[in-house]
């Protein structure tokens, strides 16, 4: 993906770019409270800001190409701490390895709250100092998910600010934030997308068969939030058969057949399908059973013997980056075509 877009603006929803650029023209406050309406991309904005603070490039931060940026994209930067309730973990563009989820109780997994242990863990890690010798960033989303004891625990650290430690707090409910926390933060208001920007953006994301009128109706229905409109599209209606059938031709795959799917389906749906298929290939390469397409196990087995496991895993990692950006692609067709070319190369 980095060969397609390598400037900061491309990694933000278009309605967030101006605000981001004006915020980053000045030194970023150590305790920043980002607020705005629901479903306008505040989490993405906060993550991009964390990336900006941690990027090790000397210009055009975040560069999305340096080591630090790659780690942020994978959720693996040792100086980035993202705290969310368990029930919102799926909103993050990467997996978090906090705790052993397999051994966690169902209650904890579904928790709507940020637990005091989550805050304590991060504070303890922070006391060890910065891993990369630069800034450290703690991002909390949403702040109102902290119950009183978690908030009080955080407060102690907010009261003793250190120059290299940044807090990015995000909320849709400013009125619910404790005054003691609010008083220690500087505010940054995130704008709601204007109708023309939201409408144009949706036009670029949605199947070409959807008319402008239909898009505008949807936007009205979801209070002007283009992200809500995207979420409302039922991904289950996507028929994976055509894509999987083509993928199972390996190096003989015809990219056009899959790219054609963009007329009716979102890039996200298609990438997700390729992702599931690739995960299965990886399982089979390690002698395990496929998880998503068990009926195609023997087809996969016949091909994966010649595939380099390392290259396959690299491909999956690229794919993850693409999925992360699939909600705001610049050139969906080019992106898909590049990816499919890489896919074919796995088998040649
Ligand atoms: Zn960078």
Condensed summary:
A 5-stranded parallel β-sheet has the order 2-3-4-1-5, with helices on both faces. It contains 16 helices and 5 strands.
Summarize the structure in words.
By secondary structure, the protein is α/β, with parallel strands linked by helices. The protein has 3 domains: about 10-190, Rossmann fold (3-Layer(aba) Sandwich); about 195-230; about 235-345, Zinc Finger, Delta Prime, domain 3. Helix content is about 45%, strand content about 5%. The protein has 16 helices and 5 strands. The chain has a 5-stranded parallel beta sheet, sandwiched between helices. Helix 6 (about 150-160) links the parallel strand 3 and strand 4 (about 165-170). The chain is globular and about 60 Å long. The protein starts with 13 loop residues before the first helix and ends with a helix. Zinc ion binds near residues 57, 66, 68 and 69.
């Amino acid at each position: 993906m980095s060969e397609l877009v390598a400037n900061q603006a491309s990694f933000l929803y278009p309605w967030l770019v101006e605000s981001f650029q004006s915020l980053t023209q000045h030194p970023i406050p150590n305790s920043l409270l980002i607020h705005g309406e629901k479903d306008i991309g505040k989490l993405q904005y906060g993550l991009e800001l964390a990336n900006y603070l941690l990027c090790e490039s000397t210009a055009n931060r975040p560069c999305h190409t340096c080591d630090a940026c790659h780690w942020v994209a994978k959720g693996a930067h040792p100086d980035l701490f993202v705290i969310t309730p368990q029930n919102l973990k799926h909103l993050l563009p990467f997996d978090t390895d906090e705790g052993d989820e397999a051994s966690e109780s169902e209650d904890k997994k579904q928790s709507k709250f940020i637990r005091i242990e989550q805050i304590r863990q991060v504070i303890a890690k922070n006391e060890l100092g910065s891993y990369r010798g630069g800034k450290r960033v703690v991002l909390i989303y949403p702040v109102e998910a902290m119950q009183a004891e978690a908030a009080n625990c955080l407060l102690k650290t907010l009261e003793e600010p250190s120059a290299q430690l940044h807090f990015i707090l995000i909320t849709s409910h400013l009125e619910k934030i404790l005054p003691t926390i609010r008083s220690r933060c500087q505010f940054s208001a995130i704008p709601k997308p204007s109708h023309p920007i939201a409408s144009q953006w949706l036009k670029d994301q949605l199947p070409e068969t959807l008319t402008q009128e239909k898009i505008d109706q949807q936007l009205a229905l979801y209070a002007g939030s283009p992200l809500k409109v995207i979420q409302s599209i039922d991904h289950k209606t996507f028929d994976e058969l055509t894509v999987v059938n083509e993928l199972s031709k390996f190096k003989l795959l015809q990219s056009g057949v899959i790219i054609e799917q963009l007329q009716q389906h979102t890039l996200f749906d298609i990438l997700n399908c390729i992702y599931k298929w690739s995960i299965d290939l990886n399982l089979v390469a390690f002698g395990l059973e496929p998880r998503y397409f068990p009926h195609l196990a023997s087809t996969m087995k016949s091909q994966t013997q010649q595939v380099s496991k390392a290259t396959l895993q690299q491909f999956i990692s690229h794919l993850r980056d693409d999925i992360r950006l699939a909600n705001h692609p610049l050139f969906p067709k080019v992106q898909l075509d590049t990816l499919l070319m890489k896919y074919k190369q796995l088998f040649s």
